[in-house]
Amino acid sequence: MCQQPSAFLPSLRPRPNSHVLTAAFARIDAILPLSDPLEVRYTTNWLTRLLSNSSEEHASLNDSAARLLILLTAGTAGSGDHTKQYDFANPTGNLSISIKETNIADGIGHRTWGSAPLLARLMAASPSSFGLDSQSTLRILELGSGTGLVGLTIAKLLLPSNASSRIVLSDYHEATLDNLRANVKTNGCDAVAKVQKLDWRHAYCDETYDIIVAADVTYELDLIPLIVSSVSQHLKKGGVFHLMMPVRKRHEAEISAVQAAFDASDFSNKLVAVTSLIW
Fold first, then answer.
1. Cis peptide bond prior to 14, omega within 30° of 0
2. What GO terms are given for molecular function (predicted)?
3. Which terminal Cβ of the chain has fewer Cβ within 10 Å, N or C?
4. How far apart are CA 66 and CA 60, in angstroms?
5. Both 72 and 163 in a single domain?
6. Same domain, yes or no: 202 and 87
7. pLDDT of 61-81, one tens digit each?
């Protein structure tokens, strides 16, 4: 019987050297797909923590870790609906979120992509860094919510102390929206989280938000001007936009396009801070 990842993956404190990590990646690769949900969860969390504490100097190792994360997800995608459990450290304790992923037609929103767990982990660890510890009533919008991990993390952070705040989890495809609603209900976030269809080509209402967040939404160059336009339409004066996107050589075109699009945008009527979180 093959040894499982929980038995051989090294501690990440201190960070292992490149030889140790390369060997660990090879051992994971050799036993994929993993059949034990607990091992999938353990390995996913290990890879996510590794990526969240990496820098561009670790580009090759980061690519290998990101590839394994995708394979871990893809390994269960073909078997129909499945649920993944995410546990994030929080100043007041542990924050747990249950996410259902499903085979749906749009091919994007049915799975949780690599940037979302990283952004969710950062938010859970330091809500104040994202303005989520405010006692004032907040209106928050997530663009391209997908399975809803980031938005539900925010909802759970708001529930204990700021239940008057609201977050809108938005996406476009109906099947994605149905799955989002199911995840909101499963996690008991109905009181603060609302699911809303949002077409980036058009403003769906006049409502504006204090905070807008997005992860894994810059996967096509044609979408970037639409994202910038949506932020411009929906962000309040003085608001903040937090964007999590991967930085790799293969993403250089997207990175440049995002920077150029925001530089060219007219935010003169807003004191907007655009926080680009990269991994």
1. yes
2. S-adenosylmethionine-dependent methyltransferase activity
3. N
4. 10
5. no
6. yes
7. 888 888 888 777 655 444 457
